[in-house]
Amino acid sequence: MPLRAAHTIHAAHCHFGWDNFFVLVMTVAPDDIVEFETVDALDGQLSPTSSVEDVTNLDFGRINPVTGPVSRHFDEKGDEVTTGIGSGLMGATKHAVRQVVDLVSSRHGMSAADAYIRCSVCADLRISEIVHQPNWVVSFYFPRIVFD
Which secondary structure element, helix H or strand E, spans residue 71, and what is its range? Predict the structure, then answer.
C-alpha cells in the first residue's frame, strides 16, 4: 500500500540557488510524509519540440530550481536541529552553529557564550548534503534532555 503524504510542497514554492535566507514553506513533524512537486532542471524552458536556438537562448538564472525549504526542528530523539547552507563546509557549519546558539540562548534565557559552551560539549554536527557542490548542508543536533 503506498504511503499517503501529510503535506505537499507545490512547485510554485521553488527558487533558484541556495540561500539560508529563503522563508520556510513549512515545518514538519518527525514522522510526517512530505510530497515535493518539483520542476525540471531547466524550469520548463525546453520541451520535446525545442530547437537548437531554444538551447542557445536558455536563461541560466532559471537553472536548477529548488522546492522548499522545509524544516524539521524537533526529531524523534528530542533534539533541537538547525541547518546551515553555505558555499563551503566551514561556512555551512558556522551558520548551523550560530543558529542553534541563538535558539538555545533565547529559549533558555542564557547568554550566547553559555549556550555555545553547552553546544560544544553536548551537540552533534552532521553533513546532510554535498550533492550541489560547492554548496554544503550541515545540520546541528542539540539534545533537549540537557535542560530536563
Answer: strand 70-71
**Burial class of 142 by CB neighbour count within 10 A (0 to 12, 13 to 18, 19+):** buried
For the stretch 89-126, pLDDT in tens is 898 899 999 998 998 899 889 999 999 998 888 888 98
Q: Quick check: 70 and 34 in contact, CB under 8 A? A: yes
Cα distance between residue 41 and residue 38, in whole Å:
9
Domains and CATH numbers, the chain: 7-68 (no CATH), 73-147 (3.10.28.20)
Residue 47 identity (one-letter amino acid): S
Cell of 71: 524544516
Task: Please determine, for residue 17, whether its predicted confidence score (pLDDT) is greater than 80.
Answer: no
The CB-side HSE value for 87 (13 A sphere, CA atoms) comes to: 1
User: pTM for this one?
Assistant: 0.50
**What distance in Å separates the CA atoms of residue 97 and residue 129, rounded to the nearest whole number?**
16
> In which element (H, E) is residue 142 found?
strand 136-143
